[in-house]
Structures are given as structure tokens and as C-alpha cells.
Design a protein that fits this description.
Elements: H1 2-35, H2 50-75, H3 82-108, E1 114-117, E2 125-128, H4 133-142, H5 146-166
Antiparallel strand pairs: 1-2
Helix pairs in contact: 2-3, 3-5
Length: 167
């Protein structure tokens, strides 16, 4: 009986050692990433004008790709399955996000309409030089693109998770 007890203790020590090893490397990596973080901005700036043109074309190509995905899912009746239905919802939200991003980039390039005061800080104010409050409201809502992107990514995650469960 003593032999079985020693064997069980040895197995437990091995399992604890293995678990600590598996948790230590990711834990140290995550700690390093968090402690060595630098300032990051949420807006990507492109060099005039070629960078913005290429970026806008990428948004438009992404829109057409997502439209083709939705068409393909519906044509093959895959949306009857909940996993693919969530992927379709993701595509709809990402189409809206891309259209919003194209609009926001377009308005960003119109420096004669407004100027950003304290750009890059937590408290940015938009002052409109010419134009109406409607343009200001449109620009403000266009900058809230995360309201489309985050649900799109969440639906994509839920759809892929559901499809993985079915495999």
C-alpha cells in the first residue's frame, strides 16, 4: 500500500510541476508585454495620397469580398446552420464597419471643413471651420466605427466556435 501512495505522490508532483511550467511561460510573457507597453493610438495615419488610396481600395475590396461571402452562404443554404448564420451576421457588421471607415477616411482628408484640437489625446475637440452641424454629427458618428467592428468580430468568434463544436 505504501508503494501505491508513493506513486500517487510522485504523479501529483509531476502534474503540479507540469502545470506550473505551462502557466509560467505564458504568465511571464504576458507580464512582459503589459509592463513594456508603449503608447498606442487607435487611428492609423496614411501618407498622402498613395497610402490613403491603397487603404480605401482595401476597404472597398473587403466590402465586395464580404458581399460575396454572404451571397455564397445564402446560395448554398448554409445560413440554416447557426454557426454559418453567425458568420453571416459578422459579414453584415463588417460591411457596415468598412463603409463607415471609408466615410471617416474621406472626411479625415477634408481639412478645410474642420480642425482637430488636441488630436491624439483623450480629449479631442472638433471645430468646424465651414459647414453645418450635420457634417459635424456625421463625422462624430463615423469615428465611432467600433460600434460596427466589435459586434462583427464577436459574431465571427461565436460562429467559428459553433462550427468547431460541430466537428
Amino acid at each position: 500500500m505504501e508503494h501505491v501512495k508513493d506513486g500517487a505522490i510522485s504523479v501529483m508532483k509531476h502534474l503540479v510541476s507540469r502545470a506550473l511550467t505551462r502557466l509560467t511561460v505564458p504568465g511571464l510573457s504576458l507580464g512582459y508585454l503589459l509592463l513594456s507597453a508603449q503608447t498606442a493610438t487607435a487611428t492609423q495615419v496614411h501618407g498622402p495620397p498613395e497610402g490613403l488610396y491603397a487603404h480605401q481600395m482595401a476597404h472597398i475590396l473587403f466590402i465586395f469580398s464580404l458581399i460575396a461571402l454572404v451571397y455564397w452562404l445564402r446560395e448554398r443554404s448554409l445560413v440554416e446552420d447557426s454557426g454559418w448564420r453567425y458568420v453571416q451576421y459578422a459579414a453584415f457588421f463588417l460591411i457596415l464597419w468598412n463603409m463607415d471607415a471609408v466615410l471617416a477616411h474621406y472626411l479625415d482628408g477634408r481639412g478645410h471643413l474642420f480642425e482637430l484640437i488636441n488630436a491624439g489625446s483623450w480629449n479631442c475637440r472638433i471645430r468646424f471651420v465651414h459647414g453645418s452641424d450635420k457634417v459635424a454629427l456625421l463625422y462624430y458618428f463615423a469615428k465611432l466605427d467600433h460600434l460596427f467592428c466589435v459586434p462583427g468580430i464577436m459574431f465571427l468568434y461565436m460562429g467559428l466556435r459553433r462550427l468547431l463544436e460541430q466537428v
